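Agenda item 2: zinc ion complex prediction
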Amino acid sequence: MPELPEVESLRRMLEQSACGRRIVAVHIREPRLRRRVASTFDRMIAGRTINAVRRRAKYLLVELDGGITLLGHLGMSGSLTHRGQDFCDGEFDPAHDHLRFELDDGTALVYNDPRRFGLLKLVCSSELGAVDELRALGPEPLEEAFSAQYLFEKTRRRRVAIKNLLMDQHVVAGIGNIYACEILFGARVRPGRAAGRITRAEAERIVVHAKGILAQAIGSGGTTFRNYRDSRGQPGRFATSLQVYGREGERCFVCRTPIKSKLLGQRSSFYCPCCQR
Ligand SMILES: [Zn+2]
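Presented output:
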């Protein structure tokens, strides 16, 4: 499932390749995503120019002229690819190409999603902060508002596992299972620890590693564990840098102890029983 680094990598590429292009037509082959894509999509979008591509948490915000923004979430298996000259189409089943946005230079943005958990909807750009999906989100982890003091205060009197707190989008936006595991390994804190038992020093380490790991993952184009692909159809390169995620039974790179896995809130949590306390 794409998290912040994957969506940010995608955003950067689309900003380079699609900004300033005009959408000439929208073809909807399958409107049944997480929610049904509005039948007015084509009428509302066709003729508009892509002014900016922004991101909030795991949401992609494609700002069109005329005060309309296309809000997108890739769900479990979605991808938005720019099908032009350097697109590599090897792994995309055309049966799952649900929406196609034709651009004025003959290329197209294509939304492909085998499991159809993604979301695409139009919102007024001026009311973006008030839409249900974005309204209650916590700060962006890479921004200053996500500080050690902020996290420490959010953990006080909380019995929830620290990993689940990091994945709570109201506390901090954009962190999912993969990066929560990696951040806690970096901070040497066990994922199952009660948030309220985290010390000020540990909150500091968690925040430092959150910023460092997310920035590094963005620099590597994100992580492809199963199906994330960037706008050119390429996988992210951060998977080779993962320290614990998906490595159950393999040796810790730091101390050689086998990595353990434990279910927390129905998600597998990976950690080193020796390095993390
Ligand atoms: Zn270890």
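Discussion summary: The longest helix spans residues 200-219.
Owner for follow-up: CH.
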